[in-house]
Every structure is written in C-alpha cells, then in structure tokens.
Amino acid sequence: MRLTVLGLFLTAASLWAHAILIESNPAPRGVVKGPDFVLRLKFNSRIDGSHSRLYLKNAGVSRQIEMDAQPSPDTLAARVTGLAPGAAVLQWQVLAVDGHITRGELPFEIR
Ligand SMILES: [Cu+2]
pTM for this structure? Predict the structure, then answer.
C-alpha cells in the first residue's frame, strides 16, 4: 500500500515536470499577420533551447525554424519570415530540465 501511494506520487511529480505549452503567439487556431512575425512559446517549466526543435508547415512545405536566444528560461522565440497566407502548423519538440522531451502541434492561420 505504501509503495503504491509513493508510486502514484512519483508519477504525478514527473508528469508535472514535463514541458507543457501554456501560452503562445500565435494562439492555437489563432491568426497572425504575415509574411513575417515573431513566434513565442511559453512553457510551464524551464526549457533547454539548444535541444529543442521547431518545424513550420506552410503552403505544403515543412521547414525547421531557427530560434533566437531564449528571452527567458521557460520561453522559446523565433522570428519567422516569408510565410504564405493560409493554414500553417507549428510542430514543437522541447527538452525540459527534467530530461523529458515533449511534442505538440499548434495549428494557426496566416493572413
Ligand atoms: Cu518530465
């Protein structure tokens, strides 16, 4: 019984330490004005930017986005240029300080 309780506690603790996206520009399903904008992703924990990756799908092409220096330890930022109007999907993969990688997709629209 005691072991079970401890196991549950550890599982919950490690889940909380994973990086979860809590704020972004663009917002999920939001609209940004193209062709250039500054992307910002804020997470619930500190991120290792050098081991994190961003890919952007737009107009049938997927490309890796080069990131700027992190404005704060929990935030990634990148200046994205040359986007075509229409649908876009940002795919993010980040390494949190606990050593776990999380991934997600952020669909949005460019106008
Ligand atoms: Cu974790």
Answer: 0.83
